[in-house]
Amino acid sequence: MSQDLAGEVAEKLKKRMDRESKPIIVNISNRHWHCTQETFEKLFGAGARPTNIRDLIQPGQYACRETVTLKGPKGEIKKARLIGPFRPYNQIELSRTDCVALGIDAPLRDSGNVKGSAPITLIGSAGEARLSEGAIVQMRHIHFHPKEAEAYGVKSMEYVKIRVGKPPRDGVLSVLCRVREDMKLECHLDTDEGNALGIKNGDLGTML
Ligand SMILES: [Zn+2]
């Protein structure tokens, strides 16, 4: 083995051992939605505001008391929860199984990229919002603070592989890295992915 190759192998091994020593918390995102103030008021009444019932790991993000019925051409799903605070766009995050139940062909997208995504109707306690776009299947991803991204040696929007689950139901998934000042280390999978790999909230994954 040439010295160059030996050096390269040692470097790769070191990176791998380093990542294995820093497992990543994995949480399962059930279907949920984000919305504008305008959409919220359509659903819950003029002047209504979301009620925070639980802070999430991602700084500033919270689960709200408010839920809606999601309606598509083939069916409805009740009690889909709002995640606050308001955003400048509406985004309804569904699993592929939800899409089948609703009869919606939502595209696989990164968060915030909702242009031309699937139409969906939301039904709240005070009214309904027929959205011409907004329904997506969220790409599985890992959130990083810039300092954490540096420690793991990853860049924003890079795809990495993470090993999750326990044998014999474990697996390796490609996931998108999302790096932002207001983010914190956490991997998000959807319910289809979590169920397929037998993962519970708070399980740990290892970046390869
Ligand atoms: Zn996330």
Tags for this entry?
208 residues; alpha/beta; Barwin-like endoglucanases; 2 domains; six-stranded mixed barrel; six-stranded mixed beta barrel; binds zinc ion
Give an overview in words.
The protein has 208 residues and is α/β, with parallel strands linked by helices. It is built from 5 helices and 14 strands. The strands form 2 sheets. A 6-stranded mixed β-barrel has the order 1-13-10-12-11-14. Strands 2-5-4-8-9-6 form a 6-stranded mixed β-barrel. The mean pLDDT is 96. The protein binds zinc ion. Residues 141, 143, 188 line the site of zinc ion.
Topology, element by element:
Layout: H1 3-20, E1 24-29, E2 32-34, H2 37-44, E3 52-55, E4 62-71, E5 76-84, E6 91-93, H3 96-102, E7 108-109, E8 118-123, E9 128-138, E10 141-144, H4 146-152, E11 159-164, E12 171-179, E13 186-190, H5 191-196, E14 203-207
Parallel strand pairs: 1-13, 2-5, 6-9, 7-9, 10-12
Antiparallel strand pairs: 1-14, 2-6, 3-4, 4-5, 4-8, 8-9, 10-13, 11-12, 11-14
Zinc ion binds next to strand 10.
